Structure formats: C-alpha cells, structure tokens
Amino acid sequence: MIRTEGLTRVFDGHTAVEGLDLEVHEGEVFGFLGPNGAGKTTTIRMLACLIAPTRGRAWVNGHSVAAEPDAVRASVGILTESPGLYDRLSAERNLDIFARLYGLSEERRKAQIKRYLQLLDLWDQRDRPVGGFSKGMRQKLALVRALLHEPPVLFLDEPTAALDPQAAKTVRDFIAELSREGRTIFLCTHNLDEAERLCGRIAVLRTRLIALDTPENLRRRLFGRRTVVRIRNLTPEMAVAVRALPFVQGVEESDGQLTVDLADPEAQNPLLVRRLVGLGAEVQYVTELRHSLEEVYLTLMEEEKTA
Amino acid sequence: MRVRTIIDKEWEEILKNKGVFWSLVLLPLLLTVAFLAVFYFMHLEAQRTGTLDVNAQIPAYLAMYEPADAAMIMMVNQFMIYFLIAPVALPIYIAAYSVIGEKQARSLEPLLATPVRTWELLLGKAVAAVVPPVVAGWVSYVLFVIGARFLVSDVVMRAILSPMWVLSIAFLGPLFGVLSVLVGIIASSRMNDPRAAQQWSALFLVPLVGAGMALMFGVIAASVWTFVVGALLVAAADAVVLHIAVRLFDRETILTRWK
After folding, report:
1. Are A102 and B114 a contacting pair at CB < 8 A?
2. Which residue from A53, A55, A48 is spatially nearest to A69, judged by alpha carbons?
3. Which residues between 135 and 154 in chain A have a beta carbon less than 8 angstroms from any beta carbon of chain B?
4. CA distance A164 to B120
C-alpha cells in the first residue's frame, strides 16, 4: 500500500530523511517513531505529495508520488501536526469546504459530514465556529476532515498530542475502529504506549531507518526473553541449580525472585518450574518479563548514538 | 468547482472578519463622502461669491472651461484616480490576509494536501481578493455620480461620466487589481518573510499613481482607445502573470520555510 525506495530529502545541505526503505501493507497500522527532527513529518509530507523527495521513489496506493501526485492526494487523508481549521467558520462549513475540494457531491457531502460528526460526538456542535472548540474537539474535527473522501490510506501526525487522557482515548479508539475497517494507517507519534496499543509494526527513524519490526520482535531482539519466578523460600542453591539447566542462558537473583533468560519460554518454562519444585521451591508466580516499548525505543536510540 | 470553493471560503472568512470587512466597505464609502463634501463646499462657495477663487494652476487643457468648472474637473480627475487605485490597493491586503493568515492558522498544509491544483488555488484567492474591493469601488462610484449630479454643472458631470473614466473604473482597475494580487502572491511564494512580500507588492501602486498624476496634469494625453488598449494589455499581463505565479508558487517553500 505504501512503498519507499531510498527516499531522501535534503534541505539546504541538511539531510532530513536519508535512504528510507519501507513497505506498509494494506490494512496495517504502521507506527513511525523518532525524536523531534528525525524526519517523520518530512516523510509524511513526501508521501502525501506536499514536498518532493530529493532522491528515491515512493508509491502510495499504487500511485507514484513523483508521477501521479493528484491521484496520490485523492487517495490519502492527512491529519497534520496542527489541526489547521478555519476558526471563524462552523464545524460543518470547515468540513464542507474540504469535501467540495475532494469532489464529493452535495448529497454525499451531507451524508459523510453527518456520519462522522455523529461518530465523534460533534454533530450537536456543527453550527458553532471552531475557534471556540477545545483541543480535543478540534483534533477530532481535523480527523473527520481527513476521512470525508474515504481514503484507503491515512497519515496521522501526532493525533493525540496535547490532548487530555479522555480525548486521547476517544481518538485512539477511533483510529482502532478505522483500522478494523481495513484502512492503512501511517501513524507518527511520540506516544509509545499509543504505538504499542495500535500498531502492528513500528519503524524507528533518526534521519535514517534504525529499526523496523513488530514491537514484540524488537523486544526479543534487544532484550531476549526472560521469565520471572517468584519463590517464597528462595535459596542460593536453587539459583545454582537453575543456572545448570542446559537451556538456561542466564540467571539473576534478587528479592525472592529469579529472572531467567530463555530462548523458548513456552517450551522451557514447565521444565524450569518442575526443577524448582523438585528442589522444594514454593513458587508464588511465574511471569514473562516484558520490556516496555519505551525501553526498546531508548535502547535503540542509545545504540544509534553509540554507533 | 474547486475555484468556486476557494472563493466561497475566502468570502465567508472576509465576511466573518469584521476588521477586514469594514475596512473594505468603509474606505471607499468615506472617500466618496469626502469627495462629495469637497464638491459641496466648492458649490457653496461658487453660489456665495458667484465665482470660485481658484488658486491652483489650471492646466492648459482645461483653459477652455469656466474657472470654477475647470477647478472641479481637475478635482474630478484626482478623485477618479482614487476610484482606480482602490481596487488595486485593497486586494493586496486581502490577499496577504488570505495567504499569510492561512499559513499562520496552519490551515495551508491540509489545503495543499487536497487535490486542489495550484492554478485553482491561486485564481480562487486572486478573484476572492479582487472582487469585493472592485464591487465596493463600483458602488462608491455610482453613489458619487448620484451625489455629484446635485452639486456640479453639466460640464463637470460630463467629465465624471467620461467614457475614459467609466472604462477605467469598470475594467482597468479590476484588471490591475488581479495583476497586483498575483504579483503579491509571487512575492509571497519567493520570500521567507510574508510581510516583506506584502511591502513589495504595495510598490506596484507607484507606477499606477504616477500614470494617474500624469493624466491629471495633462502631461500625457489619453483617449478612450488608449484606455481600451491599456485594459487589453493588462488583461494579457494578468494571464501571463497567473501562468508565472503557478510556475513559481512553491508549495514546499511555503510549507517548510515561512515563519
């Protein structure tokens, strides 16, 4: 659905994005992470035909961004970093203007505006000038604006930035709903929890692509897989015995618990627990140690810095 | 269709922006009232003294008229230049509001992400900026003609309704207005600072004012045909400058460098 080959953008000798190779599949929610100035917005702008790449090629929904910009623009919806609404105009007028620019008939415009405003609880506010809207309402309205022409591909640049938790949840839930409808969503965010919840795969960018995989695979690649066993009567002998098991890659002992590095926890956890129980351990719980996406992200950034 | 959408949007914003709207309406109306007041006091003075003591140097081409009529015709020429300049000067500020205001509200990026073509966007903005001052100018001119009918002689009235001025106000001013807006948009798209672009486009008024002064003082002679040919030339210039503006309007510069 979205493909880039060596996509590069240079501004006055400063490289904003370098040699980006990506492939985003149809119906996927694809997270695009990176620090400020990493080139996330520049990438979205190139893919939405707002700016041209300096080098490289890209296709969106089967259309080349260089050769068919009009077709690309017609098939994508974009939520920009700032909602960019016309404050003096009503919510309905704001939407109607964009629906007309996308070539929707009057009947379809009315139907689409009503449908989405109702979905996002803004229908009762449709006649109010948007200058008086809260940040959350503005963001929801900008999201509706991006959807009026039913684009198969959506670019969302920081959709929940600066929103209160409740508004952010509404927007997140709506994005999840859009994903269930089969849309391809390219989500740029600093909110790692949001990326974790919504995205099937994530890419980490710092001018160039640092990593691209599912959050789970990135975790495994960086931290391996670890099982935590909490034992009421933990003794040093138990740790030694676990360390001696052939499939155990490492053991840490602390505060009545063992943290064990395993290659295949699903197969090896039962053997581990059996061994401990055989040694008289009173096992309180066994759980997988999950590193947060934040830890993954920060580790990747640190590695990139060191490299 | 998309040009119409842009125009509708611009006008709705102008109507809802009280500052821009009233400056658009009040300036031509106040000028009209001021011009009629001048005629009124000249008329009173002529009635009181039986003649008009004209201190100003009457140009040779007005020597055939009575001194009072000559003075009034001279004033008419001056007033007409204002009617001609209004549709050129005001659109520059409306266009600045429409392009720069859009950038400041950060609404330009979503707009440029739609399938709207550059020429549609520029034409829509140019027409939206030019039409309200032109209509305001035409209405003011009509009000001026109606008011003047009660205050000036037939000779002066003929000067006010001379085909040269009617054609200028009807066609030449609006065509110059389009030209000035397009030049302003070109300047805006090539400069980092929108305020500088606005100042540069305002410079466009200088030659127009100069030409008007030259006409007023009889430095250059002009016939109706001069104005017809002039209007055609400016119309051609509009088309050429629109083409250049579309080529030069750099979406990237506007999105990435305007501060």
Report:
1. yes
2. A48
3. 142, 145-146
4. 38
Residue contacts between A and B (CB atoms, under 8 Å): 79
Q: Pick B113's closest partner by Cβ from A11, A50, A97.
A: A50
Q: Does A183 touch chain B (CB under 8 A)?
A: no
Using a CB cutoff of 8 Å and minimum separation of 24, what contacts does B208-216 make? B208/B84, B208/B85, B208/B88, B208/B176, B209/B81, B209/B85, B212/B80, B212/B81, B212/B84, B212/B85, B213/B81, B215/B77, B215/B81, B216/B74, B216/B77, B216/B78, B216/B81
* Nearest partner of B113 among A170, A153, A31, A112, judged by Cα: A153
- pLDDT of B208 above 70: no
Q: Which residue of chain A comes nearest to B8, CA vs CA?
A: A97
Set of chain B residues whose Cβ sits within 8 Å of the Cβ of A78? 109-110, 113
Give me the residue spans of the domains in chain B: 2-257
- Main-chain phi, psi angles of B210, to 5 degrees: -60, -45
First-last CA distance in chain A: 32
Q: What is the CB neighbour count within 10 angstroms for residue A267?
A: 10
Q: At residue B214, does pLDDT exceed 90?
A: no
Q: Kindly state whether A52 is in contact with chain B, defined as any CB-CB distance less than 8 angstroms.
A: yes
The CA distance from B239 to the nearest CA of chain A, in Å, is 24
Task: Say yes or no for a CB contact (<8 Å) between A97 and B13.
Answer: no
- DSSP structural state of residue B174: H
A208-213 and A76-79 strand pairing = unpaired
pLDDT of residue A303: 82
| Residue corresponding to tokens 């003794």 | A235
Topology at the third CATH level for domain A2-213: Rossmann fold (3.40.50)
Ordered per-residue pLDDT tens for chain A, 307 residues = 899 999 999 998 899 999 999 999 999 999 999 988 889 999 999 999 999 999 999 999 999 999 999 899 999 999 998 899 999 999 999 999 999 999 999 999 999 999 999 998 899 999 999 999 998 899 999 999 999 999 999 999 999 987 888 888 888 999 999 999 989 999 998 888 888 889 999 999 999 999 899 988 888 888 888 999 999 999 989 999 999 999 999 999 988 899 999 988 899 999 999 999 999 999 999 998 888 888 888 888 888 778 7
CATH architecture of residue range(s) A224-293: 2-Layer Sandwich (3.30)
Question: Given CB atoms, is A116 within the 8 Å cutoff of chain B?
Answer: no
Q: Is B13 on the interface with A (CB under 8 A)?
A: yes
pLDDT reported for residue B53: 61
Partner residue facing B9 (CB), from A76, A81, A97: A97
**Using CB atoms within 10 A of its CB, is residue A102 exposed (0-12), middle (13-18) or buried (19+)?**
buried
Alpha-carbon gap, residue B39 to A55, rounded angstroms: 67
Interface of B with A in 233-252 (CB under 8 A): 251-252
Per-domain residue ranges of chain A: 2-213, 224-293
